[in-house]
Amino acid sequence: MAKEYECFEVTLESGIAHLQMCRPEKRNTMIPSFWTELPEIVREIDDSGEARVMVLSSTGPHFTAGMDLAVFASDGVDGGVPKAVRGVRMYDTVHLLQETFSCLERCRIPVLAAVQGGCIGGGVDMVTACDMRYASEDAFFCVQEINIGMTADVGTFPRLAKIIPDGIAREMAYIGARLPAARAREVGLVNDLYADAEALLVGVMETAAEIASKSPLAIYGSKRMLNYARDHSTADALDYIGIWNASMFQPTEMAEAFSAKQEKRAAKFTGLPPKRKGLG
């Protein structure tokens, strides 16, 4: 991807799209441009169908210090507009911010977060929208919003409480204390721990490569099913997977998987098609 961004460096190699936050001197705070760049990048990658998995990582001592308060000031919700419309503006702003992370959840390919150091405030919102989370041993997670007198509103609560036990999520929400990496793994927030940031990225890239070696169509279906099952009853989820496979099951993909295994070679699966932009 040739385009340059203020908050991210983006590469695409061997089916792995790597989005790396690149403002370590500012602790990778989420400035106004962050909220437009991330969904733009994710949608471009998803629309092209070229990547099979996405890795979201960072630079410097901390993953991210969270939202920069300039985000609110830039939209006038801090008092720069009349009181009569301030609530409406705030509502619209929150929905815009929420969409920035929801695109990670909705995209067709898995998203892996590699967290080093602090994952604070909006960082928790972001990584809970990813499929899997991995961390260095010095990492910690903090719902910082309660410490500055506000309720987290960009995605933490709807997702966090479905990933970790309810009591732990409430403790994070009410107290705003740091959840260390070891405890985060213990309660299921992260999949695995690594000694440092360098080992973390190597390990996550190895996992990403494993995912990239599988059938993109089957991975897409699996992500859809997992997200649907999380938000619906078992009966509804069973019905949905039945309908999905009735229309999306590809015998040729299964045949290729068996042939590749027998011939001891890498499988050559069908890639995801680019998303349609129109009817022309």
Strand residue content: 5-15%
CATH class of the largest domain: Alpha Beta
Average predicted confidence as pLDDT: 94
Question: What is the CATH fold-level name of the largest domain?
Answer: 2-enoyl-CoA Hydratase, Chain A, domain 1
**What is the count of distinct domains?**
2
CATH homology-level superfamily of the largest domain: 2-enoyl-CoA Hydratase, Chain A, domain 1
Intertermini distance: 25 Å
Percent of residues in helices: 40-55%
CATH architecture tag of the largest domain? Alpha-Beta Complex
Q: Can you write the helix and strand succession as a string?
A: EEHEHHEEHEEHHEHEHHHH
Overall geometry:
globular
Q: Report the total helices.
A: 11
Major beta sheet, specifics?
A: 6 strands, mixed
Question: What Rg do the Cα atoms give?
Answer: 20 Å
If strands are numbered along the chain, what order do they take across the biggest sheet?
A: 1-2-3-4-6-9
Structural class: alpha/beta
The stretches of 5 or more residues where confidence is low (pLDDT under 50) are none
Per DSSP E runs of 2 or more residues, the count of β-strands stands at 9
Notes on the protein architecture:
This protein is an alpha/beta fold and 280 residues long. 49% of the residues lie in helices and 14% in strands. The protein has 11 helices and 9 strands. The strands form 2 sheets. It has a 6-stranded mixed β-sheet with strand order 1-2-3-4-6-9, sandwiched between helices. A 3-stranded mixed β-sheet has the order 5-7-8. Helix 1 (32-48) links the parallel strand 2 and strand 3. The model has no long low-confidence stretch (mean pLDDT 94).
